[in-house]
Every structure is written in structure tokens, then in C-alpha cells.
Design goal:
Helices cover 25% and strands 27% of the residues. The chain has 6 helices and 15 strands. 13% of the residues are buried. The strands form 4 sheets. The chain has a 5-stranded mixed sheet with strand order 6-2-1-7-8. It is of the alpha+beta class.
Length: 302
């Protein structure tokens, strides 16, 4: 069984696991909640846009009959080159300038009755429309083959994936917490690779605001959430600073802060982070003032 034999069926759910390694090389299985806790808010979603074209030059966002090409773009990146897509024989007929329904197309395949020609004298390759007919038959056969294979994969893949998962997962120890030296198994063009959690978080942007963790913190961490309005930002010597009143925090508190989920988009456009904690006050800094209010979640130890 190879990884390439499997297809993505759905998003991760609470009962799913990823396969990984701890720092000693032992196999571990990592739950969705543990992975989300380790990576926190470090993944920023990007939109994917798709456009279609009948000639590979002019593009539109909604698929139409006769379209033979598509291209894609992730986020603000560049458009891909034109990608040829499978079309039906009817679509090819329309793209050649014909008009009508599928019944009209089928009727166009019929030739006129011959007269005075014996069957043994007939050369089918010389008939009008022979090349088009041959192309239509080849396309129809290819589409039917693809449909049959897709149906077979759909019927077999669920059962095979379940059997494979039961066999593999039963021998892997579950971990409840991830360390920076633990590994995940990833599939690349070069085969299977193991990637450290710390490296994965760094490559994804590492938006965990851990640059200011005061030493000496102890005890159970407390959680709080606070807003920074646009009006709170003041220009400083380098960038902008906002001092937000947060009752209960002290200047000797150890802390770790990150943007709340609803403020991740704002953070991506104008990154901000907590620079220090004073008594009943949290100081937030940024290079450019955000366009809207931001919400920050923070763990701190008194």
C-alpha cells in the first residue's frame, strides 16, 4: 500500500490522528487537538481562485460549455499556465462554432443515405466527418473509462483506508503533548520525510508571540483576552505602540500572547505583538497601525 493510493476524504475530525516521531525516534500518533495546540495560530489560510477559457487567452470565473482550459491562483500569487481540461464530444462540437442541443449534435453525426454504392466498395476513411467521429468516439471512451475507475476507487477506498488505519494505528503509542523535538511524517516529491515540530511551526510563519517570555514564571497559567482599538495606537521612536489597561497583570508576570482567531486576518496585514507587561497594563507594538480593532489572547503566570 502506498500513500499515493489514498485520496483526501474530509477535514481532520476530533478522532483522527497524524503519525509522528518523538525525539528518541519512537512512533507516536498525534491527535488533531494536540497538533492545533502545538501550532496555535501559525497557519494562515489562502484563497484559491479558478478561471476558465475556451481558447487559453480570454478568461472568466464561471465554467461554460465549450471551455477547454482552466488556470488557478493561490492567494495573491501569480496565475498558473493554462491547463487543458477534459470536455465532452458535445462541448467540442460547440467549440467548433456549431449551435444546438445534444440531440442536434447526435443528429449531426448521421450521414445521408448513399445511393448506388456497394458495401464492399465503401471506404469509411473517406466519409465526410470521419475524423470528427473518430475523435468523438475516443473522447467518449476516455470519459467512460475515467467514470468507471472513479466509481471503483470510491467503492474500495473507504474500506481499504479503514483497514490500513486500524492495522497501523494499533501499534503506535498516543502522545498527549508535543515537544519541539518531536517529528511529523510528511509526504514530499522526494518520498517520506520527518519534520520537527519546531521547524514546521517556523516554516508556517510562527505567529506564536513567544519572543517575550519572562523568566521565573510558575504555577498554573491564567488566560485573558483584550481588545486594542485603532485609537489606542500612538507613534513611537520605531513603529507604533498601544498601552491597554488589563486589570490583574503585573510587571513581573511571565506571559505568551497571540492574535485571536477573529483577528488573524488583521494580524497578517499589519503584524503586532505584546512587547511587555506592566502593572494592570499590556504594551502592544506594530510597524503599521491596523485598519480595525484587534483582539489578543494571552497566557500569563503571576
Amino acid at each position: 500500500m502506498k500513500f499515493s493510493d489514498f485520496t483526501v476524504k474530509r477535514l481532520l475530525s476530533s478522532g483522527d490522528y497524524l503519525v509522528g516521531y518523538d525525539e528518541d525516534g519512537n512512533n507516536i500518533r498525534i491527535s488533531k487537538s494536540d497538533l492545533a495546540s502545538a501550532l496555535a495560530s501559525s497557519v494562515q489560510a489562502q484563497s484559491v481562485q479558478v478561471q476558465y477559457s475556451s481558447n487559453g487567452n480570454t478568461w472568466h470565473s464561471t465554467y461554460a460549455s465549450g471551455d477547454r482550459y482552466m488556470r488557478i491562483k493561490a492567494g495573491s500569487g501569480a496565475w498558473s499556465s493554462a491547463i487543458s481540461i477534459a470536455v465532452s464530444a458535445y462541448d467540442i462540437w460547440l467549440s467548433e462554432g456549431n449551435t444546438g442541443t445534444e440531440s442536434d449534435f447526435l443528429e449531426s453525426l448521421k450521414g445521408e443515405d448513399g445511393a448506388g454504392v456497394e458495401a464492399q466498395d465503401l471506404d469509411i476513411t473517406q466519409l465526410a466527418g470521419y475524423d470528427t467521429l473518430l475523435s468523438n468516439i475516443s473522447s467518449a471512451m476516455a470519459n467512460e473509462k475515467s467514470s468507471i475507475l472513479s466509481q471503483l476507487r470510491g467503492e474500495l477506498s473507504d474500506e481499504l483506508e479503514t483497514q490500513y488505519a486500524n492495522i497501523q494505528m494499533s501499534s503506535i503509542e498516543e502522545t498527549k503533548s508535543l515537544a519541539e523535538n518531536d517529528y511529523l511524517t510528511v509526504v514530499t516529491d522526494g518520498g517520506l520525510r520527518k519534520v520537527k515540530i519546531s521547524s514546521l511551526a517556523a516554516n508556517m510563519g510562527n505567529s506564536l508571540s513567544t519572543s517575550k517570555i519572562v523568566s521565573g514564571g510558575s504555577g498554573k497559567p491564567l488566560t485573558l483576552s483584550f481588545d486594542v482599538p485603532v485609537s489606542a495606537w500612538k507613534a513611537g521612536e520605531s513603529g507604533y505602540k498601544a498601552e491597554v489597561r488589563v486589570p490583574g497583570v503585573t510587571e513581573d508576570a511571565a506571559f505568551m500572547a497571540s492574535a485571536a482567531p477573529e483577528s488573524m486576518g488583521v494580524w497578517a496585514d499589519s503584524p503586532f505583538h505584546v512587547s511587555e507587561v506592566l502593572r494592570d497594563t499590556v504594551v502592544v507594538v506594530c510597524d503599521e497601525v491596523p485598519d480595525s480593532k484587534v483582539t489578543i489572547n494571552m497566557f500569563y503566570w503571576k
